[in-house]
Specification:
The structure is a single chain. The protein has strands at 8-18, 22-28, 33-43, 50-59, 62-71, 76-85, 87-97, 102-110. The protein is mainly β. It has a single domain, classed as Jelly Rolls (Sandwich), CATH 2.60.120.1540. The mean pLDDT is 91.
């Protein structure tokens, strides 16, 4: 039978009933290896706000980031990103334009 590696969830973070920006929050303090970063975000029904969700990490090329956009035309967004981190932390932050309530759910799995 083949050796099967199962990802290990090492961080879960929820940001509930947010009405403004989410400050940079460390999900993994000392990252080294391969990780799967996942996020799900939902806006209040009828919202016209736009939320930019940013993951940051460091790899062999230096500081990296990816932005996932939540908002018009959809009230929810989700994304999963595979990254290789060599040092430093893995963090999440969010900025909002439009002034609506939103929820974010983030998870990090070590591969």
């Amino acid at each position: 039978m083949p050796d099967v590696d199962i990802p290990n969830r090492i961080a879960d973070q929820s940001f509930l009933n947010q009405t403004g920006n989410v400050a940079t929050t460390t999900l993994v303090a000392s990252a080294s290896g391969n990780y799967r970063l996942s996020v799900y975000g939902a806006l209040a029904v009828g919202s016209t706000a736009v939320v930019s969700i940013t993951f940051t990490w460091t790899d062999t090329s230096g500081a990296q980031s990816i932005v996932i956009t939540l908002g018009s035309p959809g009230l929810y967004a989700h994304d999963t990103v595979f990254v290789h981190a060599t040092s430093g932390s893995i963090s999440i932050s969010a900025s909002q334009a439009g002034g609506s309530t939103y929820n974010l759910y983030a998870a990090v799995e070590q591969m």
